[in-house]
Amino acid sequence: MVTIADVARHAGVATSTVSYVLSGKRTISTDTQERVQRSVRALGYRPNASARALASQRSNVLALVIPLRTGMHVPVMMQFATAVVTTARRFDHDVLLLTADEGPDGLERVAQSSLVDALVVMDIELHDERGPVLRELPMPSVLIGYPDEADGLTCIDLDFVAAGASCVDHLADLGHRSLALLGTPSAVYERQTGFAQRTLTGFAEAAERRGVLGVETPCEHTFDAILTTVEQLLDDHPGITGLVVQNEPIIGPLLDVLRRLGRRVPEDMSLVAICADDVAERQVPQLSSVTIPAERIGAQAVESLITKLEGSDVPGLTLLPPTLTARGSTGPAPHGDLTTA
C-alpha cells in the first residue's frame, strides 16, 4: 500500500510538504505542487479517507433519504440510489441509505449525529413537512423532487408537468381524441407526491388545450386490479384509443390485459409510458415513452451537494425537460375516433 512517505521520497520533498499540497492548508510553490501531484499519479496514491475526514472535520459521507412508503416502486428508487452512490464515490464520499419514514424528526436526528456531511432527500410531497426543517439544518441538502414551497431549498427533478403534456400532445398529434392516464396507486396520490400530482396536472391541462377527452384513474399493481381498472375505464369511456401510463410495474400486465380484452397495440389502442428506457424497450411492441433520467438526476444532485459543501452557490430549482421517444406502441387513431366524450 502506497503511503504519504512513499510519495514524499518519490517527489524529493518532506512528508509535511506532501500533506500541505494535498490539504491545501499552506501555500506551496507551483513547481513543488506539480512535482507532488506527478508522484501521486505515478504511484497511484489515494489519501486515507479517515485522515481526510479528521483534517477537514467532515465524515465524507452523504445521507440518501428514501422513506419506503406504500405504493412506491422500489426498482425505480434504486436507480436513483445507484446514481447517487456512483457519483458520490467519484468525489470520495460514501452514502448512508436511510429508508425509515421518520419525517422531520429523522432529519434532525441524522444532522445531530455528525454521521453525514449533507443530505439527498427523495419522495417529495407537494406540502412536504420536511421542507422547513431542511431550511434550518446546519448542513446542505438537495431534494430530488420539489414541494410547492421551494424557496430556500435546492431541488432537482424531471419536469413532470411537461412530461404529462408531451404524452398528450404525442397522442393528439396522431389523431387520438379520447385519452386516459393510468396513474400510480391511490396511496401515492393521497400523499400528494409531487411527481404524480404534477404529471396529472400536465395531462389535464394539455387535454384541455388540445380539445380532447382526458380522464385519469389510479391503478394498483396486481393483475386483477389492472384488469378491473381497464375494464371499468373502457365501459365508462368506450371511445378511448390512447393510454398514458405512469406506473411502471403495471406495464407488462397491462399489455396482457389489453390483449385479453381484444385491443391490439397500437392498431386499436396506442400506449405511451413515463418509464425507464430499458423497460420500454423490452416490451412487445416496444413502448413510446418519456424516459426518467434517474442517472442524470442522481448525479446532478450529488454534484450540487459537493458544490455547496465547497461553499459555492447552486441553482434553487433545476427541472430537466422531458424527452419522448416514439416507438411501436403508438400509431394513428383508429378510423372513426372522432368522439370527445
From TrEMBL:
Pfam families the UniProt entry points to: LacI, Peripla_BP_3
UniProt entry keywords in alphabetical sequence: DNA-binding, Transcription, Transcription regulation
Region span, Disordered: 320-341
InterPro entries, per the entry: HTH_LacI, LacI/GalR-like_sensor, Lambda_DNA-bd_dom_sf, Peripla_BP_I
Source organism superkingdom: Bacteria
A GO term, aspect molecular function: DNA-binding transcription factor activity
HTH lacI-type domain sequence ranges: 2-56
Protein name in UniProt: LacI family transcriptional regulator
Organism annotation: Kribbella kalugense
